[in-house]
Amino acid sequence: MAETEIGAGKGRRKALWAAVAVIAIAAAGVVGGKFMLEKAVGTFIAERGGKAGSVEADFFGRIHLRDVTLPFADGVSARIAAIDGRPKIFSLSGKLDVKGLELDLKAAKLSVPAATLEDPDFFAAGLTASGEKADLLKRIERFAAKQVSAPEVAIVQNVASSEQKTVYKDVRLEDIASGRVARYSASGATFAFAMDIPDGEGATKREKMDGTMGAVTGESFDVAYMARIYTQKAGPEDKEPKLLYGPISVKNLAFSDSKSRFGYDEVRSSGLSVRMPTEPLLETLEQLQAVSDPQALPPAERQAFFKRILSLVDMLAKGDMELLGLKMEVPEQESAEGKLVKLAVDKMAFQLNGRSFDGTMNGVTAGEGTDYFKFAEASINGFSWAPTMEALTKLAGLKEEEFETFPYTTLMPEFGTIRVAGLDVDMPGGDPAAVTDSETVEDESATETEVDPSISAEQAPEAEQVPDETTNGEAASDAAVPGDAAEEPMAEAPAEQSADEATDGEAASGAEIAGEVPEDPMAEAPVEQSAVPSVPERVRFTLDTYEIALTKPRNGIPTDVRVSYRDLSVPIPADTQEEGFKTLRKIGLDKLVFSSNVELSWDEPNENFVIKQISLDGKDMGSLSFSGVMGGASEDFFSGDLNAAQIAMFGLTAREVTLKLEDKGIMAKGIKLYAEDNHMTEDSVRGLLVLMTSAGVQHFAATQPKLQDAATAFTQFISKPGTFTLKVKAKDEAGVGALELMGAAENPALLLEQVDIEAKAQ
């Protein structure tokens, strides 16, 4: 029994010592691992040119770095105050807390007070191999993390004398790998920027603007590609543009300066594709900023300067943007009361595709108080600046003596189609000035002889003989003063005349002097005018649609043109003093509504100008339209050479013309008004009109038998208004020449033998 107990005791002691040995070995391993980890991290940073103020590791594999500097190429470096946590090791998740990150780039400075990195692959993949000098791009591409979050991120940019600082709040980047961020967001941001703008007097002034934005969300942001754009130039593999960022949304943007403020409810985009530049973007911006006077450069350098500018435009390949809920308030320029002009836009949308551009604006309202200007929609489609960019490149490389022969029309872009719909305007027009008695006296007494220098010295006493007429408050313009002023047109009136007239408070220069009134209408100006409060006239009209299409340019000159508007409505004031407007109101028109269309095109194969339509239509009135074909339209018209175009004018020929006149009630309204004013019946007025028209046209047709059918058709149109159509076509397929047309301007009958005429009334 004793021996058994002794043996058991020895076994327990062995087990105890074995356990102690295992713990000791493990502890030694941890201590050794801690030491090795500290040494490895320190060596790892040092071999790559970095520095760390201190490197520590605890027994749980966590690292603690202080005052870390990570160098990049081109003298750029990142400074980090503290890094605490554990990097991702095999299948074990990692987490790093970073504080005081400062990154200085050539165009911007990035500052992050604190950030958290979940599952970062920074030390394993973010740094380079020993001895390798990596640039920022490689470090960005090699960094990976499941998520990066920061309460605050500040970015300061300095580009082309402008400075901008943006501070984002609650920043979150998700699924970072290969230099791309799958998703990103921020709860809001504040920003401020300052830039030098022209002051209109040849100098510049520093303008500052502050702003805020709400929630920011986005997808597919290629950070590595953006770094390449700034620091590298396009290589053989960079033939196609790449997506820089995907869908993005920014809510509640607001901007303000010392005078105005504006903002958007939301700005969003489905993404932007960008081409790699021919030289690094940073270098391009620096070279552009270094040139203060491009015109002073030699031609070759000036051309290179403009090419750099155009290269910035060509970087943008495809993108779009929508701006919703714009609201703006700016001070009225001529307002002493500090009035604000307000602008509101429901939606603006832009699409960019290479060098072409489309855009729309919806729900636009601008104005102050009861004065407003608004439209439902405005759009531009098919606009392209490709011709302009090509012409600018050529122009920039020319010598001064070559400027005169350059075809400047090639600088014109292709405008495409511009459209405005739902236009409504109610704005103040001209403000008629009120003339007071004192203003009249001062003006006319001071320059009496300037008003009517033809008054001779002998006539002055005659004018003084009518004091009663001028003192009773009535103008002396009705008084006829005898005398032949034409005998001494340069004679000056005595000074006493002006003094007496000025004292009387009335200008006698308005007196009607025999023989002088036709030559000097200014002498009939009223002597006395009371100060009548002036009522500003208003500009009021509405327009359903307006369209202008300038397409298919040749050397910058459009070969296809269309300009049209529909339902331009202008009200006729009830208190109008214009006789024409009074007549229109009498016939029942309280507003004028017009529509018009002009459509022209160049038929290049047949060298024709085709006038598809030139028309004007008045609602409840009538319409007039014109169409035709002109031959001899060679490409010289579109050469951009003014002399060649003028010479080509003489080669034009008239081939075919069609004129169409349609009554839509204006004749009936006119007949009714004439009948009422002259106490006649409408039938008698209509009969008289038909009789007079028939007699006139038949008398003209009697000497020109070829016009008989046209005269008969026009008489039918007057007797029973509807549609009158006149078609004139040249017998010769080449048409009637320009010289013949000029000769026919004095005697149109000369053309009758060269054309066929067809007319009809319906």
- Describe the global form: elongated
Mean pLDDT: 78
Count of beta strands: 31
Quaternary structure: single chain
Beta-strand residue fraction: 35-45%
Report how far the terminal alpha carbons are from each other: 142 Å
Largest sheet features: 6 strands, antiparallel, barrel
Structural class: alpha+beta
Question: Summary?
Answer:
The protein is an alpha+beta fold and 762 residues long. 27% of the residues lie in helices and 40% in strands. The chain has 18 helices and 31 strands.
Could you give the topology of this structure?
Layout: H1 2-47, E1 51-57, E2 63-71, E3 77-86, E4 95-104, E5 108-118, H2 122-126, H3 136-142, E6 145-159, E7 162-177, E8 180-186, E9 188-198, E10 204-213, E11 216-222, H4 223-231, E12 242-245, E13 248-256, E14 261-269, E15 272-274, H5 281-289, H6 299-315, E16 316-331, E17 340-353, E18 356-368, E19 371-384, H7 386-396, E20 416-428, H8 437-446, H9 448-451, H10 459-464, H11 467-471, E21 480-481, H12 495-504, E22 512-513, E23 538-554, E24 557-571, H13 579-586, E25 591-603, E26 608-618, E27 622-631, H14 642-649, E28 653-663, H15 666-677, H16 682-703, H17 708-719, E29 723-730, E30 736-737, H18 738-744, E31 755-761
Helix pairs in contact: 3-4, 5-6, 6-7, 8-12, 15-16, 16-17
